[in-house]
Structures are given as C-alpha cells and as structure tokens.
C-alpha cells in the first residue's frame, strides 16, 4: 500500500527529465502531464489515508476486545496477586477468558496443557472454584517452569496442578514435516504416563522454532487418553502451521474442527 510514496518519487524524477527536454511549443502538453500527476498523487494520498484510518480502527477494536476480556477474566479469578504481562508470547486475555468459562461451566476432571504460563494459573483457579479436577502441565523450559511454579505457590494453587518439566526429545512417530533431514522433537512422553480420561487438551507448545509443525505430535501421542466427548484446543491458529495441523487432525482422527476468531486464533476440535 505504501508503495505509492515510491511511485510519486519516480514521477517527480520523470517530471524533471521532461522539463529538461520539452520545448516551448509543448508547454500545454507539459501542463496536462503535471495535472495528471497531481490527480494520481491525490488518489494515492487518499488511498494511504484510508488504509491508515482503517488500520487504526481495527487496532482500536482489537485492543478494546482484549481489555473487555481482561476485565471479565480478572473478575472471575479468586487469586490475590496481579497477573503477569499478557499478549505477545503470553496468552491473550480472550483465550484465557474462554478457558476460564469452559472450565467453570463444564467442570472437567482431567485437563492437560502443553506449555505452561498464565493459562496454568487460570485453569488451576477455575478447578479450585469447582472443588475438583486436576491439571497436568508440561513445560520444556525449566526457567519458565520455575516462573509458573512460583505463580501457583503464591496463590496456593500448587495442589491443583502437576507441573512437569518435560525436556524435548527426538520424536520418531507420525509427523507432518516433509523434510527427511530435519530433527523432530516433542515432549518426553514419560511425563504423560498418568494422563488418562482427559476432558480438555490445550496445545500451546512446543515453540514453533523447535521444528516444522512442532505441535503435531500432540494428537498421535495423546489421542488414546482422551475421554469420549473431550475437546482439543489449539492456540495460535492465525499461523498457517497451527491451522493446518488442526485440519489434518480433524480428518485423520475423526474430530470436528471449528476456528474461533480470537486475537491469535483458536482451533477447537471435538470428537464426532
């Protein structure tokens, strides 16, 4: 869209060349050229202004929606300490609010999440409000795992979460990567031995930089432990890899797939 600025500069250089070479008899033609250039410049300026205004309106609406979600999210929490910064690498308020509502309304007994953080706190708090349930959270980073553990401890939520530091190991199972030379990694499966009859699986890891389609192994590794009627949630489906994974999972494992409009996108898979 902003290529219009470059076009205007090229036109200005062209106009200088024309002035150098045009004769007095071509003065009328030159005026016509200048007039046409002015019209095109005005049109480019209007297009740029429209783009900027629409972009600002969209950003304002997105920010409002996140503030609205944060308001309702914090109203529903029973924790006493402030939340860490959200959005960016962390979960966005709209996803966290959706998680909170789901856990409070459906009262799952077994939740598994891949990738810990603020979502761990929100799920644990909702389970405590329900009075039952357990969350198994897998985190490949001991650094971020320690941060999550500290959040849970200061709000007395540790008893609702089995937080496991699960190092990334070579994955030899089914995968979507078409690069035969790429090393594939996923969480240590020893950390999932006690994960059974899962009501909700939240997939927010491993990081995308781990390998191509890094989150794909979640379903082949865990599908046998899902309870009838279970749901699988995939964060970040505005990214092509995550949305592709959801579509392939749905077709291969017989799940319905719904893409929910959120800041980073959410894929919701349900057993048909």
What does this structure look like?
- The longest helix is centred in the first third of the chain and has 50 residues, at 27-76.
- A 7-stranded mixed beta sheet has the order 3-2-1-6-7-9-8, with helices on both faces. A two-stranded antiparallel ribbon has the order 4-5.
- Helix 3 runs parallel beside helix 4 (118-130).
- It has 272 residues and is α/β, with parallel strands linked by helices.
- It has 7 helices and 9 strands; from the N terminus they run H-H-H-E-H-E-H-E-E-E-E-H-E-H-E-E.
- It folds into 2 domains: 3-58, no CATH class; 77-271, 3-Layer(aba) Sandwich (Rossmann fold).
- Helices cover 47% and strands 18% of the residues.
Which characteristics define this entry?
7 helices; 272 residues; two-stranded antiparallel ribbon; SAM-dependent_MTases_sf; alpha/beta; methyltransferase activity; transferase; 9 strands; single chain; 7-stranded mixed beta sheet; Rossmann fold
CATH fold category name of the largest domain: Rossmann fold
Report the sheet-strand fraction.
15-25%
Which second-level CATH architecture of the largest domain applies?
Answer: 3-Layer(aba) Sandwich
What's the SSE pattern?
Answer: HHHEHEHEEEEHEHEE
Rg measurement, Å: 26 Å
Low-confidence stretches: none
Question: Helix content range of the residues, please?
Answer: 40-55%
How far the N terminus sits from the C terminus, by CA atoms, comes to 44 Å
What's the average pLDDT? Answer: 88
Q: For the largest beta sheet, what order do the strands appear in spatially?
A: 3-2-1-6-7-9-8
Taken together, the total number of domains comes to 2
